[in-house]
């Protein structure tokens, strides 16, 4: 039997359903799930902060999934064998548009900005309208959504690469030119990471793997316990700044003083305007800034575009990451160059309570469902 944890509607408690295990789709496969990460996006979806037009109920969340190959469709072409450990590439989306073909996650069929597209064929496992990993047996339509997990990478770590890991990889890749430039010109780059949760922990490791001691990483948060974790995993300096907007001038100086100067690049994982404006204020001219955190605030205040132009700042948005970056990240972990965030195992029964903790920010590191 397949045991699945269903989200029946926004805000509602999750419900268990049992059903016979599906037959594998002709070109797809069934994965026996061993691990699924509990991501902050699960909370956003549950609490209707995404409110996508194509949202389906009931839906099984869990978009960071690893398991073993259980069954393969009769038309599926793959080098994988039943029993192989695999991670699910969540962001397959329509797989056919310009962006999907070019290994980007920004599929217009997923985010229908082009109203002419009426027949989306979307496969984003564990979000919106396709069932994900909070179940014992997950069906994928196309076996190419499955990647073999390298030998030295445990499955509970591999699953986290599928969203948190590749998001961090994508963010660092986008600000990389500014970091390289600073290293080439000055011998060292200063990078600020605002919001020291699970994705930032990946970003710290990836920065260290790419740039070694040529980069000074400053982890920033309002919670000192998260900064302790960031320090353990490789942050060079940490800044615990006060939440209150009126404390902004001190907060900016804390970053500049601790880094030994303004930062050359930064990533905002929080989606909060206060955090972003502080990051901008602590940045060097011509700095590169990546935006990862989705905003809960209805409306951003007017942007000081003129000063951004005079400062020569570059902004990059980051929505998850590519299949290529997932392969790269798994290889870095396999080679021992990147260590995962702190992991806390939970059962499928504990997912509801875990999401509450993620929502309030009490969850440190990353929570991962273990099926057995
Ligand atoms: Zn697409
Ligand atoms: Zn996620």
From TrEMBL:
GO cellular component, one term: cytoplasm
Pfam families named in the record: ADH_N, ADH_zinc_N
Domain Alcohol dehydrogenase-like C-terminal: 198-334
MF GO annotations: alcohol dehydrogenase (NAD+) activity; zinc ion binding
Swiss-Prot/TrEMBL cofactor(s): Zn(2+)
Residue ranges constituting the Alcohol dehydrogenase-like N-terminal domain according to the UniProt record: 26-150
Family: Belongs to the zinc-containing alcohol dehydrogenase family.
Protein name, as recorded: Enoyl reductase (ER) domain-containing protein
Organism expressing this protein natively: Capitella teleta
């Amino acid at each position: 039997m397949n045991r699945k944890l269903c989200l029946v509607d926004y805000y509602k408690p999750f419900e268990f359903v049992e059903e016979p295990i599906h037959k594998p789709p002709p070109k797809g496969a069934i994965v026996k799930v061993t691990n699924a990460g509990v991501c902050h996006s699960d909370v956003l979806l549950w609490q209707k902060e995404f409110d996508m037009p194509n949202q389906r109920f009931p839906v099984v969340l869990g978009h960071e999934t690893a398991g073993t190959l259980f069954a393969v469709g009769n038309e599926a072409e793959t080098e994988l064998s039943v029993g192989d450990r695999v991670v699910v590439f969540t962001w397959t989306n329509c797989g056919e548009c310009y962006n999907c073909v070019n290994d980007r996650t920004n599929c217009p069929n997923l985010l229908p900005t082009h109203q002419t597209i009426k027949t989306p064929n979307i496969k984003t496992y564990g979000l919106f309208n396709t069932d994900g990993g909070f179940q014992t047996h997950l069906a994928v339509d196309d076996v190419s959504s499955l990647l073999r997990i390298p030998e030295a990478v445990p499955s509970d770590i591999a699953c986290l690469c599928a969203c948190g890991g590749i998001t961090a990889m994508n963010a660092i890749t986008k600000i990389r030119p500014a970091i390289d430039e600073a290293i080439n010109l000055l011998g060292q780059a200063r990078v600020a990471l605002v919001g020291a949760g699970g994705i930032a922990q990946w970003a710290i490791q990836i920065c260290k793997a790419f740039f070694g001691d040529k980069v000074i990483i400053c982890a920033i948060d309002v919670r000192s316990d998260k900064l302790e974790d960031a320090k353990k995993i490789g942050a060079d300096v940490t800044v615990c700044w006060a939440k209150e907007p009126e404390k902004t001038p001190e907060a900016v100086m804390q970053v500049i003083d601790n880094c030994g100067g303004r930062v050359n690049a930064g990533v905002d994982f929080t989606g909060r305007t206060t955090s972003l404006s502080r990051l901008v204020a602590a940045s060097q001219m011509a700095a590169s800034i990546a935006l990862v955190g989705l905003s809960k605030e209805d409306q951003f205040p007017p942007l000081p575009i003129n000063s951004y132009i005079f400062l020569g700042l570059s902004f990059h948005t980051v929505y998850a990451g590519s299949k290529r970056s997932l392969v790269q990240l798994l290889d870095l972990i396999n080679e021992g160059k990147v260590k995962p965030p702190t992991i806390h195992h939970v059962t499928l029964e504990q997912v509801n309570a875990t999401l509450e903790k993620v929502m309030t920010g009490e969850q440190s590191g990353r929570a991962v469902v273990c099926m057995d």
